[in-house]
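Ticket #4471: structure output looks truncated?

Reporter: J.K.
Steps to reproduce: submitted the chain below (329 residues) through the standard prediction queue, then opened the result file.
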Amino acid sequence: MLGRDATTALAAVAPLVQAARQAAPHELTPAVAHLAPAIGAAPVPFVAATAATAAGALVELGGQPGPLTRVVLERLSSALTGTHAFLDVWLAAAGGRPLPERNQLDMAAATAVLTGAVGMERATPLLAAWRDAPHWALAAVACLHHAEARAQLGDRAAWTAQVDPLHSAAPAFLRLILALRIVDEHLLVLHRPTGRGAMVYVSGVADNFQLQTLLADALVGAGLVPGDRPDQRWVAAFRHGPDGTELEHVDDYFHLTDATGATMRNEAGPADIAVVSGSRVLVLDEARYSRHWRPGRRFPIPAQVRVDRILTQQEVDAWMGYIPPPSAD
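Returned output as attached by the reporter:
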């Protein structure tokens, strides 16, 4: 159990993380499962959040998140709500001062501001949320490396709406925004120049740099798109690493839009593709510019892009009837 004494509780967690670095991945899963209920029941918010970060480290080292995911997502949702409430009070009461850092000195000053504005009883949970939310975000990112954890997100758009406005409030929130872009589902892909289309399963892909290369490999490999497949070293790097590779730049293959005609930037991800009639619809045109980037993944998780079904010409024609023509921009 993680008690009320923060020093004692955190001292008990730290050796576990150190020992985990020497353990085999399969040995870490029981440790994560043991920590999860203790984190959920921890009476001190800072202890729970810090222990969750430690448990997330075990997941990143190879443990399965299991019951940790539910605990982290529940606490993260509450912390994000509290963070937004903290910001509302701070902006109204702080007289234009910059947001506080999450260190002892700044948090003491923030306590004085919020207590003066709304009283100690209301200020205390808001201060805790501001301080602890990045810990919960990092723990969530670790869990979201796994498809079974991503399946527990529920309304992904609601999560994104909560986190997006906080992107500059802590680096952990930006990492979480990127993790929320990963989907594990079929995309309906239409290649406008050839009038061909397919249902393509996408998993573990965090941005459209990665998607472009793996999609080109899958579509050319299936004979749906003419041309040469991407360099297989690039494909391997985008699928399973190594990350930070010194391979030469990767070429742009397509201009991406969704079913509404909106351009899908390479910095965006699969979850940003609009859903129409139950499917994310991605339209491919010839690349408009010569753009290049280095191969590599946002997260150290395996990625998969595969053609599962080639659409009939009738299906393609029906979908293309709803798709606006390519824009000139």
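Triage note (M.O.): checked the attachment and the full token line is present. The CA atoms of residues 240 and 302 lie 5 Å apart.
Status: closed, working as intended.
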